Amino acid sequence: MTKQQANWSPYDNNGGSCVAIAGADYCVVAADTRMSTGYNILTRDYSKLCKLADKCVMASSGFQADVKALQKHLAARHLIYQHQHNKQMSCPAMAQLLSNTLYYKRFFPYYSFNVLGGLDNEGKGCVFTYDAVGSYEKVGYSSLGSGSTLIMPFLDNQLKSPSPLLLPAQDAVTPLVEAEAVDLVKTVFASASERDIYTGDKLEIVVINADGIHREYMDLRKD
Amino acid sequence: MNFMDSKQPESGLLGPESDSQRTLYPYVTGTSVVALKYKDGILMAADMGGSYGSTLRYKSVERMKPIGKHSLLGASGEISDFQEILRFLDELILYDNMWDDGNSLGPKEVHNYLTRVMYNRRNKFNPLWNSLVLGGVKNGQKYLGTVSMIGVNFEDNHVATGFGNHLARPILRQEWHENLSFEDGVKLLEKCMRVLLYRDRSAVNKLQIAKITEEGMTISQPYSLKTHWELSAFQNPTQGAVGSW
């Protein structure tokens, strides 16, 4: 029998966009809930957010099966950490763990694009942004995934973060108050879903602040 | 494709297909599975064709099977891989039963197990060439999920594999609602299966519908759908196509 299928690939891109914005005393993490493959929508209600610790939330797009494996692995590592240290992992610690976990699979990578948002030990918002093999950077805001090419320049324009090359190092947190940041996130997703076919259906927003974690949803275009 | 012409290295992951022990393409395949939640549980439909490439080789393949007490599994893709998965699940259910503690695996647990098996095999570059649909009811909770060959998985109120994703799900999105009665659910599935029968060349007009509720599951006897081929476009498909025979 002649071969009919194209060469088999262990990867797929299930699309989706992720955004995180850090403020002085809060962090907003958001992602849409559409999951696609090719031109098909698989489901309109799949959460890309994962609470890794009390003050740490990860948003991931890319290949869903890899993302799920990564989330399960981090949850297991965090459970061990809690047993050993009797406390929740801090967001910067989780950021390093995520980097190491991704690099461990450097030669058969997790095809996942992650942004990690949360509060640091001083209660200040922090965002860490990654590539698929674990190189990461602490930033004030970030966008990753299929709609990031539409979202990121808009955030750059609105938030004007100080250059990371400045000496002494400038603080990267955004000057917005919490409600402004949530509004900005809603705007960028409403815009991205106009042009990116992999972003849409519903927006899931998580706000982390001193009161804990608060979650809200907003409808996006379904076409 | 001639294997002799390929200039790939002799060993390693990309070695010649002739001495490969992996499923690089499927042999006998089943086409779409369609399933939905309805008022009392889950309904699932699949036809009974088994294709050998584009030859319709088998006509009585059962592609939906009961798993344990609370779950129903439907499969499209490589039939032999499906049968191997059934062996894994039989063992899983048997060993779970041997605890004799009154607990039993529900659809959520079985689906999660399948998710890990499929993903684990793709990690070994040795996939089980299937798209699976798992439905069930346990403790009043309806469950419907799916897993692909490479481990992509999700739950939804209605799911479909393969061509069903293109042709059946738009119908389901338009007509599905939470309080579907059994009769309306079957009607909706039959509508989907009829569209698939008309437009998916590997679909055959012999299908089963399976039902699972809190009370238990039943898989129907094979039956056929009423079809209507008398439309003029079906009667004379080459009309207006100059030069066609």
From TrEMBL, chain A:
Main location per the UniProt record: cytoplasm
InterPro entries for the chain: Ntn_hydrolases_N, Proteasome_bsu_CS, Proteasome_sua/b, Proteasome_suB-type
Nuclease among keywords: no
GO biological process: proteasome-mediated ubiquitin-dependent protein catabolic process
Regions that span the bilayer: none
Protein localization: Cytoplasm; Nucleus
Gene Ontology annotations for the cellular component aspect, listed alphabetically: cytosol; nucleus; proteasome core complex, beta-subunit complex
Cross-referenced SUPFAM superfamilies: N-terminal nucleophile aminohydrolases (Ntn hydrolases)
Keywords: Cytoplasm, Nucleus, Proteasome
Alphabetical list of Pfam families matching this protein: Proteasome
CDD domains with a match to the protein in the record: proteasome_beta_type_1
Keyword check for Cell division: no
Subunit structure and binding partners: Component of the 20S core complex of the 26S proteasome. The 26S proteasome is composed of a core protease (CP), known as the 20S proteasome, capped at one or both ends by the 19S regulatory particle (RP/PA700). The 20S proteasome core is composed of 28 subunits that are arranged in four stacked rings, resulting in a barrel-shaped structure. The two end rings are each formed by seven alpha subunits, and the two central rings are each formed by seven beta subunits. The catalytic chamber with the active sites is on the inside of the barrel.
Function: Component of the proteasome, a multicatalytic proteinase complex which is characterized by its ability to cleave peptides with Arg, Phe, Tyr, Leu, and Glu adjacent to the leaving group at neutral or slightly basic pH. The proteasome has an ATP-dependent proteolytic activity.
Family, as annotated: Belongs to the peptidase T1B family.
Protein name: Proteasome subunit beta
Source lineage: Eukaryota, Viridiplantae, Streptophyta, Embryophyta, Tracheophyta
Automatic annotation (TrEMBL), chain B:
Keywords attached to this entry: Cytoplasm, Nucleus, Proteasome
Localization per record: Cytoplasm; Nucleus
Annotated signal peptide: none
Keyword Chloroplast: no
Entry GO CC: cytosol; nucleus; proteasome core complex, beta-subunit complex
Gene3D superfamilies: Glutamine Phosphoribosylpyrophosphate, subunit 1, domain 1
Superkingdom assignment: Eukaryota
GO BP terms in the entry: proteasome-mediated ubiquitin-dependent protein catabolic process
UniProt main location, coarse: cytoplasm
InterPro entries linked: Ntn_hydrolases_N, Proteasome_alpha, Proteasome_beta4, Proteasome_bsu_CS, Proteasome_sua/b, Proteasome_suB-type
Protein family according to the UniProt entry: Belongs to the peptidase T1B family.
Role: Non-catalytic component of the proteasome.
Subunit organization: Component of the 20S core complex of the 26S proteasome. The 26S proteasome is composed of a core protease (CP), known as the 20S proteasome, capped at one or both ends by the 19S regulatory particle (RP/PA700). The 20S proteasome core is composed of 28 subunits that are arranged in four stacked rings, resulting in a barrel-shaped structure. The two end rings are each formed by seven alpha subunits, and the two central rings are each formed by seven beta subunits. The catalytic chamber with the active sites is on the inside of the barrel.
Name used for this protein in its record: Proteasome subunit beta
